[in-house]
Specification:
flat; 6 helices; 5% strand; two-stranded parallel ribbon; mainly alpha
């Protein structure tokens, strides 16, 4: 059994599908209230397969840049849903699955606590301006380019949300 599992893992990794399969499996387990009953997980997996959106991240050697590009693409494709009685927009689209390779022993960052005071004081445009300055002063450093891609993703997503709210709820102020 271990040989089959390892072979499948190698196959999925080779085609850049390992992270997508891991993410979808974990989503299925979570939706099944962490019960690992095979039939329950399989039912959820099949029922929600139609909701999946795939994002292909082309060959980038830098893992940080891959993650930034992935974030930007998620911001472009995420499903937007909001009920009329809601006043705060929060709707992560967990059905977006990445197709890309990362080293097997390296996992991308998860949640990071944001310095909200800085974001509120400077705004994304102010932060982006500072990053552009650092980027130009540091010989086009990939780290700063990845941060700029992330800022671009945030701007794309916020514009999408703004347009969504204007269209769906014209009486709400955005």
């Amino acid at each position: 059994m271990k040989v089959i599992k390892d072979s499948l893992k190698t196959f999925l990794y080779y085609f850049g599908l390992l992270e997508a399969v891991r993410k979808y499996y974990n989503l299925c387990i979570k939706e099944c209230i962490f019960e690992r009953k095979t039939m329950k997980v399989l039912r959820f997996l099949l029922k929600n397969f139609k909701n999946i959106k795939i994002i292909l991240v082309k060959n980038q050697n830098n893992i940080l840049l891959k993650e930034a590009i992935l974030f930007k693409e998620i911001c472009k494709k995420a499903k937007l849903i909001m009920k009329e009685e809601e006043v705060f927009f929060y709707n992560p689209d967990f059905f977006i699955l990445p197709i890309y390779k990362i080293p097997l022993n390296l996992y991308p960052l998860g949640n990071i606590t944001v310095n909200y005071a800085e974001v509120l004081n400077k705004g994304i445009l102010g932060i982006e301006k500072e990053i552009k300055q650092l980027y130009s002063n540091n010989d086009k450093n990939t780290f700063y380019f990845a941060l700029l891609e992330t800022c671009e993703g945030i701007k794309i997503y916020s514009n999408r949300v703004r347009m969504f709210i204007k269209k769906q709820f014209p009486e709400k102020k955005s």
